[in-house]
Design goal:
By secondary structure, the protein is an alpha/beta fold. The protein has 2 domains: about 160 residues, P-loop containing nucleotide triphosphate hydrolases (Rossmann fold), CATH 3.40.50; about 70 residues, no CATH class. It is about 40% helix and about 25% strand. It contains 10 helices and 10 strands. The mean pLDDT is about 95. GO terms for molecular function: ATP binding; ATP hydrolysis activity; branched-chain amino acid transmembrane transporter activity. Belongs to the ABC transporter superfamily. It comes from Candidatus Defluviicoccus seviourii. Keywords: Amino-acid transport, ATP-binding, Nucleotide-binding, Transport. This is Leucine/isoleucine/valine transporter subunit ATP-binding component of ABC superfamily.
Length: about 240
């Protein structure tokens, strides 16, 4: 579904991605782990066209989307719940969801609204509440729900557990699994919480200083002693 080949991305003179190769097949959950500054968020933003890659290629299905504008990438079936949630704080929950649905067929709006309210019942209770007054966990749920309202085939999740209490993290990861298994949405998950990410993922990649240094199944990476030392036993 998603194939990235030889991807280089720069911020000015700083090379953030240095020849990244990876792929995500339809129906998978694929995790990308790495330390702060490794380039994980840059990769997701490059997939979505902001910034564009300096070299290399991003393919989605049969299309080369490397130079497409962001709105066309979203319309093609990719949605992102960004790091930091970035909800519209002054808008209500319902208005945020309406914003997520702008690229989708309006005839599906009510059924899609029911779908996300089933995934996140608290959002139904808070539908008229301003997004900025929600708790951190509720804002993360809203960010994911807003992305789902565009009816994506591929959902990009950037640090969905960041800053959340352990019980909320477990809930978020349960919902990610449900989105994948029951709603047939492919998921590309960027996470610093390597344990939760790799336990959930079918496959994973490790990104270090803008380069993919290791790949394998989630189970294989969890068992790898280098991964355990760096990311699962107090490492960074």
């Amino acid at each position: 579904m998603l194939r990235i080949e030889g991807l280089h991305t720069f911020y000015g003179s700083i090379e953030a991605l240095r020849g990244v190769d990876l792929e995500v097949s339809s129906g998978e959950i694929v995790a990308l782990i790495g330390a702060n500054g490794a380039g994980k968020s840059t990769l997701l933003m490059t997939i979505c066209g902001q910034p564009h890659a300096a070299r290399g290629q991003v393919r989605f299905g049969d299309d080369d989307i490397t130079r497409w504008p962001t709105h066309e990438i979203i319309a093609a079936g990719i949605a992102q719940a960004p790091e930091g949630r970035r909800i519209f704080a002054r808008m209500s929950v319902l208005e945020n969801l309406l914003m997520g649905a702008t690229s989708a067929d309006p005839q599906h709006f009510e059924s899609d609204l029911t779908r996300v309210f089933t995934l996140f019942p608290i959002l139904k209770e808070r539908r008229d509440q301003r997004g900025g007054t929600l708790s951190g966990g509720e804002q993360q749920m809203l960010a994911i729900a807003r992305a789902l309202m565009s009816r994506p085939r591929l959902l990009l999740l950037d640090e969905p557990s960041l800053g959340l209490a352990p019980m909320v993290v477990k809930q978020i990861f349960r919902v990610i699994q449900e989105i994948n298994e029951q709603q047939r949405v492919t998921v590309f998950l960027v996470e610093q919480n390597a344990f939760h990410a790799l336990r959930l993922a079918h496959r994973g990649y490790v990104l270090v200083n803008g380069r993919v240094t290791m790949t394998g199944t989630g189970r294989e990476l969890l068992a790898n002693p280098d991964i355990r030392a760096a990311y699962l036993e107090g490492g960074h």
